[in-house]
Design a protein that fits this description.
Strand content: 25-35%
Number of domains: 1
CATH architecture: Roll
Radius of gyration: 19 Å
Order of helices and strands: HHHEEHEEEE
Distance between the termini: 42 Å
Shape: globular
Largest sheet: 6 strands, mixed
Number of helices: 4
Strand order of the largest sheet: 2-1-6-5-4-3
Number of strands: 6
Helix content: 25-40%
């Protein structure tokens, strides 16, 4: 009986280790993604700019990746415009960088979407492109945290911009 229990434990442990290793190896960050065409190349550049500006807390560069009519999901209950983000982000990022603030680095769903993490990566990009419109789906990765992110994009004057950002609401 003890041998069977040991074999089951060992089998479970091997499956768990293999799952973690496989998951880690199959993660392609946006910076390592190999675009399939010119549109994907332009979108990849845009998302590298987006995540770099976000990680550097550079509001102007971050906003430059957004379309003027952008709708950005801040929390499950709050969708902000580009102008609203311009006012919100400096204080939000400053507050989240201060560990002494009661808001802290909260991880609850109601907290500001992704902005409470110091550095993040967009991984495993999936693009759907049709002329001047595109959809992109990523996994958002910060430490052990992994979440889906959805973007709608539009191209005007040969430049792609993020028109809408959201994530699943559970």
């Amino acid at each position: 009986m003890k041998t069977l229990r040991n074999k089951l434990f060992l089998g479970f442990y091997v499956v768990l280790v293999l799952s973690v290793l496989t998951s880690a190896l199959w993660r392609t960050p946006i910076t390592a993604y190999n675009p399939q065409n010119e549109n994907e190349r332009a979108l990849t550049t845009l998302f590298i700019d987006y995540i770099t500006a976000r990680n550097d807390r550079d509001v102007d560069r971050f906003l430059a990746t957004l379309h003027d009519d952008c709708r950005y999901m801040v929390t499950k209950d709050l969708i902000a415009s580009k102008e609203e983000l311009k006012r919100m982000l400096p204080g939000l990022w400053m507050q989240n960088d201060d560990d002494t603030v009661a808001f802290g680095k909260c991880m609850a769903w109601e907290c500001w979407n992704e902005n409470n993490y110091e550095t993040v990566m967009l991984i495993n990009p999936k693009f759907q492109i049709a002329e001047n419109q595109a959809n992109a789906r990523f996994k958002f990765h910060s430490g052990l945290f992994l979440d889906d992110k959805f973007f709608s994009l539009t191209r005007e004057d040969q430049a792609w911009r993020i028109k809408e950002f959201s994530r699943p609401v559970y």
